[in-house]
Amino acid sequence: MLPRLALALLLPLVTAGCKAAPVNATPEGAVRELVERLAALGSDQASARAAYAVLSSTSRQNLDRRAARYGDASGKLIDPSAMLVPARASLRFVPRTYQARVEGSRATVEVLGMAPEESARLECVLEDGLWRVELPLPELAPMPRRPGAEP
């Protein structure tokens, strides 16, 4: 009876230390998570939020500004993750391998498909101990103003 009781008391302590590593504990994991979530964008908003979560702070800020501009123009507030549009996020090929080259707090992940021409490179940055993907998004252009209009 005593060994069973000891085992029952120790088992939660032992398994508590066996948590899975976050998906973006490595640059490859961050890019893989982003690719998988972008592939599922058309089916649910949770995928867009999960994809947004693995983006770098710079990429998230860019999407935040885009969502704010959309809200200013339309009068509708939208979640910044909704700026990840399925048509723009479609995959050019099916990824087979992810290879990272890490230099300090930055990494380049090469995504390779089956054919030699199927490759893409994504930049990652280490933020708060986790790898985040930097989307190659252009900065927003200033809003055009009519001559004589107040800023």
Task: Please explain how this structure is put together.
By secondary structure, this protein is α+β, with helices and mostly antiparallel strands. It has one domain (23-134): Roll (Nuclear Transport Factor 2, Chain: A). The chain is built from four helices and four strands. The chain has helices at residues 2-16, 27-39, 45-53, 57-74; strands spanning 97-103, 106-112, 119-127, 130-134. A four-stranded antiparallel sheet has the order 1-2-3-4. A hairpin with a 2-residue loop joins β3 (119-127) and β4 (130-134). The N and C termini lie far apart (78 Å). Mean pLDDT is 84; it is low at 1-16.
Number of strands: 4
- Provide the gyration radius in Å: 21 Å
Number of domains: 1
Q: Proportion of β residues?
A: 15-25%
Reported by name, the CATH topology is: Nuclear Transport Factor 2, Chain: A
On the 0 to 100 scale, the average pLDDT is: 84
CATH architecture: Roll
What quaternary form is this?
A: single chain
> Which shape, going by the Cα principal axes?
globular
Q: Numbering strands along the chain, what is their spatial order in the largest sheet?
A: 1-2-3-4
Q: Briefly, what CATH class?
A: Alpha Beta
Poorly predicted parts: 1-16
Helix content: 25-40%
Largest sheet: 4 strands, antiparallel
N- to C-terminal distance:
78 Å
Helix/strand class: alpha+beta
Count of separate DSSP helical elements: 4
Task: Give the SSE order as H and E letters.
Answer: HHHHEEEE
